Amino acid sequence: MVARVKGPTDHVVVVGAGLGGLSAALRLAGAGRKVTVIERESVPGGRNGLLNKDGYAFDTGPSVLTMPSLIQDALNCVGEDMKDWLELMPVSPLYRAFYADGSQLDVHADTKEMEAEIALKISAKEAQGYREYVEFVTKLYKYEINDFIDRNIDSPLNLLTPNLARLIALGGFRRLAPKVNQFMKDPRLQKVYSFQAMYAGVSPQQALAIYAVIAYMDSVNGVFFPKGGMHAVPRALAKAAQKHGVDFKYNTTVSKIEVTNGRAKAVLTEDGQRIECDAVILNPDLPVAWRDLLGKTPLSVKRLTYSPSCVTLLVGSSKQYDFAAHHNIHFGKSWEGVFDELIKKKKLMSDPSILVTIPSKDDPSLAPVGKTSYYILFPTPNLDAEIDWKKTAEPYRHHMIETLEQRGYVGFGDSIETQVMTTPLDWQAQGMERGAPFASAHTFFQTGPFRPRNMAAGIENIVFAGSGTQPGVGMPMVLISGRLAAERIVGPVK
Length: 494
Hints:
Elements: E1 11-15, H1 19-30, E2 34-38, E3 50-53, E4 56-59, H2 69-76, E5 88-90, E6 95-98, E7 104-107, H3 111-121, H4 124-149, H5 162-170, H6 176-183, H7 187-192, H8 212-220, E8 224-226, H9 232-243, E9 247-249, E10 254-260, E11 263-269, E12 274-276, E13 279-282, H10 286-293, H11 299-302, E14 309-317, E15 327-330, H12 336-344, E16 354-357, E17 372-380, H13 389-406, E18 416-422, H14 424-429, E19 462-464, H15 475-490
Parallel strand pairs: 1-2, 1-13, 2-9, 6-15, 13-19
Antiparallel strand pairs: 3-4, 5-8, 6-7, 10-11, 11-12, 14-17, 14-18, 15-16, 16-17
Helix pairs in contact: 1-9, 1-15, 3-4, 4-5, 4-8
């Protein structure tokens, strides 16, 4: 039996209307609980935020949407259908990959289409290797999802299932990069099917092969884009929750959780409210929630190491580029070397691999008529590095624009009409420990049962949701974290 919150659970307060908090609120409402969601911003979304500026609607957080079935799953809890709340468009190609040698590759979810692309651009032998890789990641997903991702884990012993043996036999606990290289010998394919480890905060050389499951979630299952931008997802979840009785208090900041005799009694806000409750779900970044709301940091949290960070540049531009797709990955010449710089040496990448997303390509309403919106992401070290972002931000912004122009976006700097830069210092100000939007790194001892648990040790009715707890980082994992948090309170929701 999985551990559950003790005592009454009639009224649950969810702190934070991020995707984890919203997923939990829908499940709790569906199970008949009174639910209050307290959110410091004026809109839902948390890291999946929205910025309206000069006629542009910018997403400030995740830009890649995979596994929409998990959104449907959350809405099912209150008897709603995703089609009534969200319009999702498949993104094709999923990614367009550009390489330092001038070649490019379109990544498709359809296996036959991708085989044809690889056979045409590289070789028939590599296309065969890709097909075998897809079989490998599909098995990985099948063995992982129920036993390791989509369930509450109280102890490593919970993992002793037949699927663990299957994962070991598959090579799931070997390193990711060598495992990918077994199937595909061309370095271009190796990069495009292992870069997803960055989402988990580790390099492909360091990541376990089980993280190829992220490649399954996008490169096999598909990538989607919601009409209205990524922020349409939290908007839809919040509206559906509201329809089913969830009370939202926006523009309200929680200052403390009142705990007596090992039990949360009330949530206190900066504007003087005291909201009594039977249980609490904390959706802020787990280390920050412990320190700022519960007033302590357990040793297990103190010991955590964090993912690299990133700098994003949101740009409204008068220029568009015909060569670009919705999601574009521009790989530098260097590969292993830049991860060493980023993770071991904690330096800025000398030859960065970068993501350029163009949301207005699939939804022109996100930009003024005839204009284009860009979301540009450069991986950087987190705040453990000795980089003074107050001094570095402006020169780095110039470096980003210069790099984009070198990678084919000619005249990019001159076409900028509006821009917003977010550095690790800004991520920290938004409540992310070490300025790391990808949370604590998914190293072996911070994965699965070793990741911080979603039940607060020593407090019997507080549960965590979000990327800092199990199962981990990324929109699919965070939506699942909300379900797991709710199940700690109401049991499995059918």
